[in-house]
Design brief:
Layout: H1 2-5, H2 11-27, H3 33-50, H4 57-61, H5 65-73, H6 81-92, H7 104-111, H8 115-139, H9 147-157, H10 187-196, H11 198-211, H12 223-236, H13 244-261, H14 264-271, H15 297-311, H16 319-338, H17 347-364, H18 374-390, H19 392-395, H20 399-411, H21 413-426, H22 433-439, H23 445-466, H24 471-485
Helix pairs in contact: 2-5, 3-6, 5-6, 6-7, 8-11, 8-12, 10-11, 10-13, 11-14, 12-13, 12-15, 13-16, 15-16, 15-17, 16-18, 17-18, 17-20, 17-21, 18-21, 18-23, 20-23, 20-24, 21-23, 23-24
Length: 500
């Protein structure tokens, strides 16, 4: 207030005049587009600068929502949609937790039904997100395998410094220290509209559903698929450079994907096969199998979660992001089994990523620097694996995938046995009954773990009796036993109600 207004006594006059001037110029269609653009940029910079400080209250008092919407929908200023929707999202986040009912911008996002506005926001978001993806790809070409790429890789491998390398060469992480580029901030308005606006979610789902199953010659990838591509790069490189900024954007991407997983309509649209290519990050070894259309974009969504699970296991563990990842995966699996949609997917990669997380937590617990929540993470991961085993007949596309899931559990039996000691170590003896009821997962996790261990030990005995000596023999023995006697598993703890 001292810097901008010269004192508290002048703050009302100065800041009220500032918001009125912004409103007047942005609303004035007679003003030049260049002037309105400059005012819009100034407003974005000012709002970012004051953050959550008291001058932001003047923007709540003087609602700029109508002039922002005018900027987006007017033909002569629609090219400034990126800055306009960013300003709207920034203002919607002013004291969001304690003054949400007083925030006119949150109300506008929630209540606006203007589909033309929503389509223009999607257009701007798609353009910005694609620019972020291209910036990552310009650092390291991670195109899916082709003859030219494979031949180039072969020549590269013959270099003296790589000839004796036993593992794939990882791109130096310092090359990504300045990523993502500034355009990635478009994730903030995307999250706000997906989370707060039923109309935007409807447009988001319908535009993808309209394109599903069509072969198109247009080079423009739909926003929904560009968002999946962008998320894959953000989660793969989140902790590469130990940059709080990169981790914050990855967290925002995961929260956005969680909102998508909470919408049945969007999941239904993503379930339909697409002929569009979805470029997922392959810059961190080992890469996942490439997305080969026609295929359901739900496969790419699950790939994003695998990439987070694989590439962010560090001492400073982002537990909250891991919880979001596990909950999102659970919701996708819940939707698939409820709709009896047996997804053709590389499920083994998901089971291995989940088991890798449990193994990491059990072996590195004492050296982790966390903000808590590890116990809840272990419990929810166990419940996710338990759910897959309980509902495998509704989830898995064929018996072979069920056999692979069971075998992954059996070969990782020791990892699951360690979880009991881990949970005992993490247990809070002072946690009351009310806290356990709130957590939801706590009462069921020990039962889930007991069922998983019982399954693993049952087949361990079978494999010993069969004299198995290799992984292929083990998988065949498990498959033969399941085909003969069926899969005997513990109680189903998951009920029929949708996840909270």
């Amino acid at each position: 207030m001292e810097v901008f207004a010269g004192g508290v006594s002048e703050s009302d006059r100065v800041f009220s005049g500032l918001t009125a001037a912004i409103d007047e110029i942005l609303s004035n269609r007679a003003a030049s587009a260049g002037l309105r653009h400059q005012v819009l940029q100034m407003a974005v910079i000012f709002v970012c600068g004051i953050s959550q400080l008291s001058p932001g209250a003047y923007f709540l008092r003087h609602d700029l929502g109508p002039c922002i919407v005018t900027t987006i929908t007017s033909p002569d200023t629609e090219q400034f949609t990126f800055e306009a929707v960013l300003l709207l999202a920034l203002l919607a986040n002013f004291h969001k937790s304690d003054a949400a009912k007083l925030n006119p911008y949150l109300r506008r996002i929630r209540e606006t039904t203007n589909e033309d506005l929503m389509h223009k926001i999607c257009w701007a978001a798609n353009f910005a997100a694609a620019a972020v993806v291209k910036a990552y790809q310009s650092i390291s070409d991670d195109s899916p395998p082709s003859f030219n790429v494979t031949f180039g890789f072969l020549l590269s491998a013959l270099r003296p410094d790589r000839a004796l390398a036993t593992n794939p060469v990882d791109t130096p992480r310092e090359l990504f220290k300045n990523q993502p580029i500034e355009a990635c901030v478009i994730l903030l308005p995307l999250f706000e509209f997906l989370h707060g606006s039923a109309t935007f979610r409807d447009v988001f789902a319908k535009t993808l559903a309209a394109e599903a199953g069509k072969k198109t010659s247009t080079p423009i990838t739909p926003l929904q698929l560009t968002l999946l591509s962008l998320s894959s790069y953000l989660v793969s490189h989140a902790s590469s450079s130990s940059s709080p900024r990169a981790i914050a954007y990855a967290s925002l991407a995961l929260n956005t994907l969680l909102v998508i997983c909470e919408s049945k309509d969007i999941l239904a649209a993503l379930r339909q096969d697409t002929y569009e290519e979805i470029r997922l990050c392959r810059q961190r070894p080992p890469p996942l199998p490439p997305f080969q259309p026609p295929k359901s974009p739900l496969c790419a969504l699950l790939d994003c979660f695998i990439l987070w699970l694989r590439h962010n296991l560090h001492r400073r563990l982002e537990v909250h992001c891991y919880l979001i990842c596990i909950r999102s995966t659970y919701r996708v699996l819940w939707y698939l089994q409820k709709e009896h949609a047996r997804l053709d997917y590389h499920w083994q990669e998901l089971w291995r990523a989940l088991i890798l997380l449990l193994e990491f937590l059990a072996s590195k617990l004492d050296s982790l620097t966390t903000t808590g929540g590890v116990q809840q993470l272990v419990e929810e991961t166990l419940l996710l694996i338990d759910f897959a085993l309980c509902r495998c007949e509704q989830l898995m596309p064929n018996p072979k995938v069920v056999h692979e899931l069971v075998y992954e559990v059996v070969r990782s039996a020791e990892v699951f046995r360690k979880q009991q000691g881990l949970l005992d170590k993490l247990a809070n003896p002072h946690a009351g009954a009310s806290q356990k009821r709130l957590s939801g997962s706590a009462p069921r996790a020990p039962q889930a773990l007991a069922s998983i261990i019982a399954l693993a030990e049952h087949y361990e005995v079978k494999l010993r009796e069969a004299g198995v000596r290799s992984a292929n023999q083990g998988l065949r023995a498990v498959a033969k036993d399941i085909e003969k006697d069926g899969l005997s598993y513990g109680s189903d703890l998951h009920g029929t109600d949708d996840p909270p």
